[in-house]
Each structure stands twice: as structure tokens, then as C-alpha cells.
């Protein structure tokens, strides 16, 4: 992409995208479901932290949330490229909603077994890639190419809005109605998404070329030959290791070092999502007149600096400011890279390609959780902060390398 194509967008692009009934339904259903997911992480983390050995169990919970993503991702791409995405998304909602509902149902009938939160987290992780790959794979079929940045920014805005509402509301509700009832709300949010997906009128099936596109080896070769896809995927994988560490650090800080308990955890996660909300809104309207890899590198460097704010403990608002910065600069990374991927990946390969790329990127947080857990058991917050910063920012050198910084093409 040349610098001339790095255009300044207008709010009219958002209006055009949202005027499409099918996109609006899918986006709204996804946002509601994501808000429920935000409440679920807070509720499950609080349930686990309330058990003996809570810090070690929290690390295990984070691994259960993230490790199965890789296995589930292997199955998602072919499903999305073979079946109507509306039906795949609805089936995912039924399965994950039922898993989440098992905890409030078990609590209502007695006491939920200690292993159940981990099983629910594993099911959630196993199926997580269905909406993460399914929604973006459907976007090019719903909007014009000129509106891809706006549509991808709206996806990021959905993540941000849900992330602000879900964790903050979940943290407040836990004290009032209890964690199991918070999980019941998430189970209901899946029903909303299922209904929205099935209400989309336009079939979201791949074209006839999908079955005869290429062999698996040829499809992989298409992705590996693209320098932009390879370098950005590796950089995002590293950044997600740091975010995986943060998923353990944030509850640990709220439980042991910050005033407010679950409300402090909700504040941190809401600040992260608020940053994503603001960053996504800007990214949908503006792309800098820089080489794409350089723009991503500078955004990743700025986002990485936010991890150091955990050193401002015990001041929750100072730590929250760092979380805000992480979201503010990481959201444009996602929006700009995703639009470029949609332009570069052939239509018949989108389901498989987005499954492969997002699976790789989402499979690395367990490594971060595994790295953070022993550090926090020793109580070494400074080492945790330095580790997150370095893991998040060292890949910037790869993005800025002379051989990688040429415009993709």
C-alpha cells in the first residue's frame, strides 16, 4: 500500500457501515456477548482467588482460558469456509452459553465444585476462535472495501465498549449478587448473540472457489510468502505474551496490593477497554502517512510502555492510566493490520487464514500466564513489570528492520 492510500477517513464511513442492517445486527450481538465475557473473567478469577492457593490457581485459570485456543483454532477455519458463518456463530453461542450457565446452576443446587471454573474456562478457550475469526471473516462480505477500516474499527469499538461495561459492571455486581449470578448474565448474553446471528438475512457462505482453492500446503505457502503477514503475526504474538502476563498481574494486584478488591480489578480492565475504545475510534478514521510496519512499530512501542505503570502500585488510578495507554495504542495496531490482511488475503482463504493468524496470536497468552505466576508467587512486581515491557517492545526492532520495513506488496 502506498502512502497515498493512507487516507483520512470521515464519520460518514461509520454511518455507511452501521446503515447495513446485517452488519449492525452481527456487530451488536457480538458486543453484547463480549460484555458478558468481560464479566465472566472477573467472576471466574474471583471465584478462583477465593480458593486456597488462589495465586497459583489464578495462573492455571488463565492457562485454561487461553491454551485451548490453539486446539480449537485448528477446527474453526474449515468450518467457517465450509458452512454459513451465521450458523457456526449461533452454535458457538449455544455451547459456550451452556458451559457458563453450569456454574450458576450448580451453585443454585448446592455448591459448584472447585474444578468447574477451570472446565468452563477451557470450553470458553476452545471455542473462543469462532467469533474471533468468524466476525472478521464475514466483514468483507458485508461492507465495501473502502469502508474496511471503519468496519474493523467498529469491531474494535465493540471490544472496547464491552470491555468497559463488562469488567466494571461485573466487579460491582460480584459484591451485590455473587459471582455465580454474574455468570448467569453472561449465559444470557450468548442467547442475544445467537439470535442476532440467525437474524442476519444475507448468507455468509464462501464462494464456490473455496472448496477448490488450493491444497493446505499451498494455502500455507500463500501466507508465509507475505512478509507483512509473517512479521506482524510474530510481533503480535509477542505482545500477547505480555498481555497474558497482565491477565495474571491485574487480579493479583487487585487482590493483594490495591484498595477496592474486585472493584479495583474492574477499574483496571475497564481502563484497558476504554483505551481500546478510544484508540479504535481514531484508527477507523485515520491511518498515518507512514510505511504500515513503521506505524505498527511505533504504536506497539507506545503500548508496551503502559505495562510499566503497574509499578505505580498501590495507587489504582495510576495503574489504570497505564492500562488505558496499553489499550489506546494497541487498538490501532489491530485495526490497521486487520484491514491490510483483508485486502491481501484471497476471499476463499479468509476463514482459514484468519483462523490461522488469530489462533497463532491468541495461543501465546498462556506462555505469559506461565511466566507471570512464579514471579508473582515471589512477590516481585518490578520483575513482572520489566518482563512485560521487554516482551511487548523488543519485537519493534523486527518491525523496523530494513528488510521488513518496506511497504508490503
From TrEMBL:
The keyword Membrane is annotated on this UniProt entry: yes
Coiled coil: none
Transmembrane annotation, as ranges: 25-49, 55-76, 156-176, 182-200, 228-253, 265-286, 293-311, 317-337, 382-401
Protein's UniProt name: MFS family permease
InterPro entries (alphabetical): MFS (IPR011701), MFS_trans_sf (IPR036259)
Record-linked Gene3D superfamilies: MFS general substrate transporter like domains
Keyword Magnesium set for record: no
Organism in which the protein naturally occurs: Actinomadura namibiensis
Amino acid at each position: 500500500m502506498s502512502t497515498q492510500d493512507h487516507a483520512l477517513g470521515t464519520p460518514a464511513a461509520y454511518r455507511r457501515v452501521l446503515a447495513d442492517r446485517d452488519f449492525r445486527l452481527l456487530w451488536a450481538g457480538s458486543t453484547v456477548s463480549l460484555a458478558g465475557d468481560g464479566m465472566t473473567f472477573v467472576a471466574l478469577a474471583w471465584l478462583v482467588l477465593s480458593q486456597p492457593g488462589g495465586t497459583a490457581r489464578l495462573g492455571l485459570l488463565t492457562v485454561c482460558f487461553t491454551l485451548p485456543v490453539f486446539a480449537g483454532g485448528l477446527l474453526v477455519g474449515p468450518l467457517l469456509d465450509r458452512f454459513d458463518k451465521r450458523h457456526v456463530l449461533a452454535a458457538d453461542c449455544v455451547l459456550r452459553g451452556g458451559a457458563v450457565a453450569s456454574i450458576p446452576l450448580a451453585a443454585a443446587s448446592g455448591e459448584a465444585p472447585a474444578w468447574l471454573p477451570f472446565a468452563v474456562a477451557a470450553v470458553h478457550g476452545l471455542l473462543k476462535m469462532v467469533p474471533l475469526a468468524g466476525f472478521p471473516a464475514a466483514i468483507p462480505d458485508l461492507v465495501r472495501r473502502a469502508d474496511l477500516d471503519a468496519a474493523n474499527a467498529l469491531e474494535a469499538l465493540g471490544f472496547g465498549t464491552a470491555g468497559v461495561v463488562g469488567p466494571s459492571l461485573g466487579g460491582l455486581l460480584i459484591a451485590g449478587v455473587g459471582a455465580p449470578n454474574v455468570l448467569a448474565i453472561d449465559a444470557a448474553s450468548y442467547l442475544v448473540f445467537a439470535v442476532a446471528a440467525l437474524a442476519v438475512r444475507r448468507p455468509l457462505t464462501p464462494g464456490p472457489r473455496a472448496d477448490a482453492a488450493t491444497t493446505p500446503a499451498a494455502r500455507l505457502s500463500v501466507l508465509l510468502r507475505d512478509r507483512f503477514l509473517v512479521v506482524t503475526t510474530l510481533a503480535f504474538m509477542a505482545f500477547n505474551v505480555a498481555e497474558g502476563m497482565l491477565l495474571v498481574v491485574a487480579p493479583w494486584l487487585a487482590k493483594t496490593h490495591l484498595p477496592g478488591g474486585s472493584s479495583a480489578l474492574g477499574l483496571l480492565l475497564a481502563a484497558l477497554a476504554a483505551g481500546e475504545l478510544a484508540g479504535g475510534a481514531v484508527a477507523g478514521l485515520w491511518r498515518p502517512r507512514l510505511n504500515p510496519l513503521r506505524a505498527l512499530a511505533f504504536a506497539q512501542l507506545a503500548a508496551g510502555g503502559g505495562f510499566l505503570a503497574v509499578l505505580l502500585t498501590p495507587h489504582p488510578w495510576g495503574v489504570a492510566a497505564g492500562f488505558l495507554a496499553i489499550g489506546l495504542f494497541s487498538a490501532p495496531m489491530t485495526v490497521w493490520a486487520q484491514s491490510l490482511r483483508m485486502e491481501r488475503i484471497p476471499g476463499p482463504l479468509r476463514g482459514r487464514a484468519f483462523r490461522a493468524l488469530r489462533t497463532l496470536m491468541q495461543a501465546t497468552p498462556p506462555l505469559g500466564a506461565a511466566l507471570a505466576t512464579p514471579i508473582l508467587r515471589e512477590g516481585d512486581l518490578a520483575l513482572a513489570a520489566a518482563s512485560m515491557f521487554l516482551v511487548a517492545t523488543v519485537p519493534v526492532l523486527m518491525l523496523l528492520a530494513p528488510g521488513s520495513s518496506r511497504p508490503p506488496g
